[in-house]
Amino acid sequence: MEAILDRFLRYARIDTQSDPNSDSTPSTEKQWVLAKMLFEELKNIGLQDVTLDDRGYIMATLPSNIEKEVPTIGFVSHYDTSPDFTATGVNPRIIENYDGKDILLNEEENIVLSPDYFEDLLLYKGQTLIVTDGTTLLGADDKAGVTEIVSAMEHLLAHPEIKHGRIRIGFTPDEEIGRGAHHFDVKSFGASWAYTVDGSQIGELEYENFNAAMAKITARGKSVHPGLAKNKMINAIGIITDLASRLPKNEVPEKTSDREGFFHVYKLEGSIELATMELIIRDHDKSLFEKRKQLLKDLVEAINKERPGEVVLEMKDQYYNMKEKVEPVYHIVEIAEEAMKSLGIQPIIKPIRGGTDGSQLSYMGLPCPNIFAGGHNFHGKYEYVPLESMEKAVEVIVKICELTAKKF
Ligand SMILES: [Zn+2]
Questions:
Q1: Which of 175, 239, 263, 294 is within CB 3.0–4.6 Å of 78 for a Cys-Cys bond?
Q2: What global pTM score does this model have?
Q3: Would you call 120 a catalytic residue per the annotation?
Q4: What domains appear along the chain, each with residue ranges and CATH number?
């Protein structure tokens, strides 16, 4: 069996950055390199029905080793990394027996990973940390998850005394650009439920996420010489900023937490003739989510009535809170919770302030909570993952398989 650390490093060094500006799947050619490697590897370690489809989706089966009928369960993660930060030339470094002090990632550029800023580091004093060299992200999101799933399957294959039902695993491209679930064939995956292994800190267990919508508002104005503009000029910039100023001031990402929703204006562009504003709308609560969307419609309508010029709103839903799909089968959360507790891990159950592939999969018929993969500071040069958290994640996956067989 390959050591967890070696497996992770091998995956992490392969650049699999996805690209939101590409329409193909996978969005980047380079993701095929790891996809093909995983495809061969899953066959080599002894999994069955290993498939790699023409869009880069990988699936495999660990057959049941018991007589009785047990639901098929699945584990899912993504092998692409975020387009937010470069993944070319990932050169991970190992910090053994972490002393709780600053870690100099890059001497030349004086890039320091410090517990003064990232307090989570102190949770891992004495452990082995895998960090970057300060020039790339690490890609623990989600190569840690991929590593953990493969290593857990390898462990189960080597230990037939651990009894389990049929297990399916799935690896996707393009999760980081929101498309990981888009071409996921839930039917051929054929599991009753699954877990994405894509969370952060050890213990994380998540089955609530935002309801999400995006909106683009376009204002059209009329350009006239400023010296002769009275009662003639219509300034599209003025219209858009007026609209932006009417959004609730305290309901923004930087002022909300837990289950508080928000409007997030992330782009304003404009000239006299044409101005646009792009924003996202987020709320865990379905009815509050609908109210937020209605508020935006009302504001646009009001501005259209009050001012000259034309404002057009385009809005579309992106994903929904998986809670609605998971609560009716809540035992799938309880099994994960029990698995963690039996291994001495305190479950941290909290709502995700974002979405996961699991939220989309849940609405596609595969209820899919998220469990920790162990990494921190995703999507940037300060990303790190403690080896011990990865080892625990492997144990949790194994335990979930075992408990599911026991309970059904
Ligand atoms: Zn991820």
A1: 175
A2: 0.90
A3: no
A4: 4-208+322-407 (3.40.630.10), 211-319 (3.30.70.360)
